[in-house]
Specification:
Chain lengths: 324, 283
Amino acid sequence: MNSEPAIRTKDLRKSFGETRAVDGIDLTVGSGTVYGVLGPNGAGKTTTIRMLATLVRPDGGTAEVFGHDVVKQARTVRQLVSLTGQFASVDEGLTGHQNLVLLARLTGYSRSAARRRAASLLAAFDLADAADRTARTYSGGMRRRLDIAASILSAPRLIFLDEPTTGLDPRSRNQVWDTIRAVVARGTTVLLTTQYLEEADQLADRIAVIDHGRLIAEGTPAELKSSVGDRAVHVRLADPTQRTRAEQVLTQVLGVSVRPATDPATLSSGAADPALAGQALTALTAAGVTVATFALGQPSLDEVFLTLTGHPAGERSGSEELVP
Amino acid sequence: MSTASATTMTATPPETGLDAVLLAPERPRPPHALTATLVLSWRAAIRVKNEAVEQLFDILMMPVVFLLIFSYLFGGAFAGSVDNYLQFFLPGVLVMAAVMQTLATGHTVSLDIANGVFDRFRTMPFWQPASLIGTMITDLGRYLVTLVLTAALGLALGFRPDAGPAGMALAILLILAFSFAFAWIFTTVGLLTRSPNTIQAQSMLLMTVVFCSNIFVDSRTMPVVIRTIVDANPISHLATAVRGLVHGTVTTGQLGLVALSIGLLLAVFGPLTMVLYRRRGNG
């Protein structure tokens, strides 16, 4: 309904000393959508989010949130957004209930409205039983849920989630995903960062891939995957010494590049025709290579990067992940 | 999840809970500065309460030890008798007890700010100094406990305030006001030095400043150079005014000097702390 974008940045820049954390990023995020920012550690994801959330002042370029400049109209922007940082932004010394009441009061709710809001959120996020325990005793998944509950407490129009599922077990991760979907279904715009292609694929309407502070690809998950190919063969060998042999066989059968992974017993192909995968497995066996696992799946973030940039997504000794 | 019970508030199914929060997008107006400060002071109080025993030990150790050592070991030599010295020293030890606590306030604030929840606070539309002032107001409660208990020990040992309970109460209020202002020095320092390892050095430095005052002995006994320094120390002004209040001899000039220090400290270190606090996310 609303054609005004939730976020619009132009040539956004931020350096920390010599490091160009964000080096000229243009983004447009539609209202009511989920936008995924995908990139390795140190790519500039966190810095971008912190600039949009008014925590960090850009060095150059402009950024607008619902048409309001994040520097000149920071106060207005703060009324519209909510940030869930990479490290849980809940107060560990307070109970779940106290955390939410605190934030509701600081948003401007009266004491009784704050309590009501805290109670309905704790119920909605399956935390009612843990309401009166200090957040210190919460599991990683519970903490994240409390964190997201805290983020939507003020009914923001836009929420930023910085790596919402990093470090969570699969079950908690699915719960967080469901929560994000439920929040979006009610009209909130979400910008999330992630290191996992699968997460961006599951949740995001559009994805931006950033590396070294620059935007290297942008589009819907389908566009992105078709540009890198969405079927890759991942093989794990029983005997690492057979890897060179396996590499030769796979390259020959699949007709695409095959790379050894960091793990000495595994290797992955680039995008391959799924029909050839079966032949590849037969050929490997025929060549006397003992295969421990053989999988056909999405390319990893590493492969996306290799395809898009020609270099692996190496961890840069960037300043981004340090707590500023 | 029954069919017709959507209107009842009590049996709210999870999905409805989310609806109740998200589909009523009536945003309240940002809280008043005072409300935000009190709410954040409540937060700090919960944290203090959670470790009440450690806190009590922390705030009482130094004043009690100093009061006993200086009165009983040095009192006779300094002032002819323990009792004489106690009349002079107790107001001073009260000043020292509160001023040394301001260091802990700065430390608490700087550790607290590293907590992720402060990132959230900074993106919320309330009056930002409340995040720091809330903690500092709660710490006034800690100073008050220190002062009252130290004063009680002093009275038990034989301290007799000539101006009675009213003088004591006014003296304590003056110390609280000064300490609140003085604490901004250490919030500034706490934001500048991110490493908690400097706390030892800061503590030594503050101790030196405290010793270079008239808390322990009258500056008239000191060499001229030292005496000039000691007489210029705002902590000396506070100790003098506090002695005046408890013994009923205070002058307007003495109180004026303390008021001036309070004003200057707030005017310089208050804004400085806030600028650093704002900038912290930029590092």
